[in-house]
Design a protein that fits this description.
By secondary structure, this protein is of the alpha/beta class. The chain contains seven helices and seven strands, in the order H-H-E-H-E-H-E-E-H-E-H-E-H-E. It has a single domain, classed as Rossmann fold, CATH 3.40.50. Bound molecules: S-adenosyl-L-homocysteine. The site of S-adenosyl-L-homocysteine has 20 residues, from helix 1 and helix 2.
Length: about 230
């Protein structure tokens, strides 16, 4: 299945906003760490509802923010949520970015990078468009150590790359990035019911839910373009 076929349906169902709400728990901390300076040009890969591009302009004073997504309906929704002329949304693919060499100051991605058909190629493509010293803040909830996320692949028709901490760092280096930091950011906002309420519809035990949200949360890998 294509990105368009899978995610256009998600956008039509309003799942773009559902993801924004959940992902914001940790995405806001990632965005808060980015070294964006006033007037910078920034990019969000796999933007969904487009919240990150809006936030980078509003809260971090970026001069121009692009959100890129392979699903035209996601882009259409994202455009409808803002009238800020400095924020733009484009349909495009991670493997071939519609931007000139060294034209982007900083890039962000949340819960999207692992859908790239060729993840190392996608990192090389990002390196091409980032200016020297530019950064890529890559955030994922689906990774090897966070075992309670592994079943997600069963519900998605696009192949997802399941890397562990080391594989993320190795791939960044293989694509020519320096790795500036790697960290896990806990989700402290998803509500975890008391032990007596388990099992729930989604969780067998409270321990498993605590592990997924409070211990593993979101894996952040930060690359710097030399
Ligand atoms: N970042 C958003 C959306 C995550 S869902 C959030 O945090 O809520 C992942 C998004 O990545 C989807 O909108 C999907 O269309 C997009 N995507 C997946 N593979 C892609 C690819 N190869 N090229 C461009 N976009 C892609």
């Amino acid at each position: 299945m294509s990105v368009r076929a899978e995610f256009d349906d998600w956008a039509a169902d309003g799942r773009d906003k559902g993801m924004e709400k959940r992902h914001w728990h940790t995405a806001k901390h990632v965005l808060g760490r980015m070294p964006i300076e006033t007037g910078d040009t920034v990019l969000d890969l796999g933007c969904g509802s487009g919240y990150a591009a809006r936030a980078m302009c509003e809260a971090k004073d970026a001069g121009r923010a692009y959100g890129l997504d392979g699903a035209p309906e996601m882009v259409r929704n994202a455009r409808s949520y803002t009238d800020d002329d400095n924020v733009g949304y484009v349909v495009g693919d991670f493997q071939s970015l519609p931007f000139a060499d060294e034209s982007i100051d900083h890039a962000f991605s949340m819960e999207a990078f692992y859908y790239a058909p060729d993840p190392v190629g996608a990192l090389e493509e990002l390196r091409r468009v980032l200016r020297p010293g530019g950064t890529f803040y890559c955030a994922v909830n689906y990774f090897e150590e966070s075992e309670h996320t592994h079943a997600w692949q069963d519900n998605i028709a696009i192949e997802m790359t399941l890397w562990d901490y080391d594989q993320y760092r190795e791939a960044f280096r293989e694509a020519g990035f320096h790795v500036a930091e790697q960290d896990t950011i806990p989700d402290r906002e998803t509500e975890i019911p008391p032990a007596s309420e388990f099992p729930t519809d989604d969780w067998e035990t409270r321990e498993a839910m605590v592990e997924r949200y409070r211990e593993y949360g979101t894996l952040l890998t930060v690359g710097v373009a030399p």
